[in-house]
Fold these 2 entries.
Entry 1:
Amino acid sequence: MKVIKIGGGCLKGKKTIESILDLLAPRVDGDIIVVSALNGITDMLIDGMADALVDEETIAPLMSRLRNRHISTARYLISNPDLQRAFSKSFGRELQRLERYYYGLSYTGESTPKMRDLISSYGERFSAELLTAAMRDRGVKTECRMPQNIGMLTDGKYEDATADLEVIRTNFRNHLGPLVEEGTVVFLPGFYGISQEGNITTYGRGGTDYSAAVATVAMEAEVLEFWKDVAGFMSADPRMVSNAELIPVLSYAEAAELCYFGAKILHPRAVEPVRRYGLDIAIKSTLDPDARGSLITQNSPETPHVIKSVTQNTDVGLVKVYASGVGARPGMLADVARTVTEQGINIKSVVTSQTCISLLLDKKDMDESFAALEELTPNPFRKVEREDGVALIGMVGEGMSVNKGVAARCFSTMDEAGINVEMIAFGPSPVALYFLVREEDLKISVKALHESFFNGKA
Ligand code: ASP
Ligand code: MG
């Protein structure tokens, strides 16, 4: 059996949803399909909470938007009137409950993490019910199960929960095993699970990928399939490099690096549980459903040029803290890191030298981090500088750390292209080498590196 994840990207317009259902209907039999909310619905639910806190008059229009979107989609996708009616009825009941939560929020004027998770989980509940009915309408034997009813236990942390894999393995086998065995296709809302105390807890934004990974492990599925409207993992961004190639096989570590730093193919957290149990992930393309796509697996063959992909991320900035003897003064790095993380900011990476601590940050966190460091009193630094307009390049490939020639080749390529490399991070990951260039040099750099490694020019 397999677990299939259908993301919000495949759940955009009615026609896109129709085509993914038609594509999957003949390909499923006793499998599990984990679904995201219809595109944009989670944002709508979350924005709706902020609006409801300000003005309860916003709740009714929100409810009609949610109703219209789901009901009109159901009308388009489901032809059998009985199935359509049954969906409308259960949807109506659920929507009514959701409406009460919004009024509760509005009257108490309090938005707790518990309430936020509860409300934002509704997008997935709606879409799972809707797709179950639509797939049944296509002659497939289907059932829908809610995570809270089949024991998808979490650690109870709101907005960033972790699944209890051992407990879920037992529970899923009991609840889903018999269904799957008799050939029923089970739909499961992604994005959330339930705590020991019975509270809905989400896995964070984009968490449906993680839900699907958990289901894969729990059921020991042969493969976890992600259907995407791209070919798979590529050797470079095709918008930058026209002859970028599909990567047919990659390791978990390679996939995790690619996802963490740029490729929006799957949530980095989804790799971990699957890796732990040695199961495979397949990235399948809706554009070419019979193509193999990219396979993420335990043993990824090393390619002759070691590098599998040249990846980039332009959503970064650098803050540099200068002081003498940074490397030798205890506590300095901790002070710097604390000052930034106290603002609730995630530091992506740190590189230190004797005179400088460089922090790699998301673009959106630059202003706040810089201000916090500047305001630190007494100021233990000589100066704090910021560097905007930079871009991160990642060279990813298993075998990179043992094959030091790769780094040499990388930097000689950059040198020949006349490009200045700013910050280099090598070592934290054995499968990746990262460095910064000026944003305006990005395209040339990526092209030159790809050319060098993939077309054997250097
Ligand atoms: N619907 C949730 C979100 O938008 C979870 C997901 O789609 O993975 O973040
Ligand atoms: Mg997603």
Entry 2:
Amino acid sequence: MKSKVRIRFAPSPTGYMHIGNLRTALYEYLIAKSQGGEFILRIEDTDRNRLVKDAEKVIYDTLDAVGIRADEGPNIGGEYGPYRQSERKGRYLDYAKELVKRGKAYYCFCEKSEDEGSESTPLSGHKDRCRDIPSEEVNRLLGESKKYVIRQKMPLEGKTSFEDLVFGKVEVDNKELEDQILIKSDGYPTYNFANVIDDYEMKITHVVRGCEYLSSTPKYNLLYEAFGWKIPNYIHLPLIMGKNEDGSTSKLSKRHGAVSFEDLVRKGYLPEAIVNYIVFLGWCPESNRELFTLEELEKEFSISRISKSPSIFDYKKLDWFNSEYLRKKSDSEFIKLARSYIAGAVNEEKFNMGKIAQLLRQRISHLDQIPEMIDFFESIPEYDVNLFQNKKSKSTLESSINILSEILDELSELASWTYNNLYDLLIKVANERGIKNSSVMWPVRIAVSGKLVTPGGAIEILEILGKEESLRRIENAVKKLKNLNIY
Ligand code: GLU
């Protein structure tokens, strides 16, 4: 009988969710779910020096926000717990001692091993001289409570290879493999050891992670072999790159823009749009369809369509996905999402939020564009009179004075300030003068907004501003133009 697919997401709690990590979680979840398998959350929090407050919560909140539900995890429980690595600390030493017994690991008493405790500076091919200390000598040193680390004993010759489901055959010369530390001098495991033990104990069938782990995998496999355990399937994921200003690419980092889920959400990207976009960073479906819900992806996803070539994070494409999702929201959903961004720029009490929301809806790709687009409602900026000049709508400074003066009179007479009445009035002025509608709309829009580009046209802005404020702004515009003494 085929065993049930079990895939884990094993984030270190860093305090934020990098897009690359979220993509890993998403692919792991989708690979598991598309095969009726289980998705397990394991928190790799053994690096106590780097612990960040509430960092675990960021992980739960992110998975929640995008709709990824774990079947097992620290906050859920499960048969193979604990799911927090710090709570598993006691388990690893015995495994390492077993390896020593099997001749696949050894005690190393070298002092330099102390500062080499992290995995950050692996020494390629390093084989330590403690490999060959006779066992009586080892026992003597242990008896003296001499500090030690336990290192993996790599074969001196031959090759180790494995078949990655995305990258294909990967092979290394064993002499290139350093005798990496498994247990540090404080008795705790390195990541390189703990991940193998945890994956084994948690019955993980597919190990899915970033391709930066490709070169470590042969070492992990030698551990599985040393224990006589079944080696899991491996799926390494392609790099995510960012585009640099000079057109080159490099690993996606802060200098390319927002790179964490929280930052993107703060900028007003919707979780479902983020998920939909990032699933394409290394995968594509058979058809050229682009919009998928998570549920649809659970059916559609397949390992065979994961690519090994790096993908480029394209903020414009993310904008496109987000606008699609924003447009699909109902009015009330959109207002709910946009409310805090609108309220940051204008006084909610003074303006009709629904009308402002409608203006924005078709025009934004992320919500944090809102304040800058609508702040003119609250107070009109200092603007350059030359904005009144526009070739296409045949608007000049002179024509603007005339039209605005007339409109000011007509508008002050207008009894009911509705969209339709405003529309009829402006069109009537254009018709009577025998000029294009836009020759009227242009100066009015500039006069009430002070901006070259606005969400919505003159009439929508007049309607939202209300009579009093509209008249005041047009009056000021007329004064401003008259002060130029162009006659
Ligand atoms: N804790 C590791 C990380 O966050 C997990 C790598 C793995 O999936 O094994 O990079």
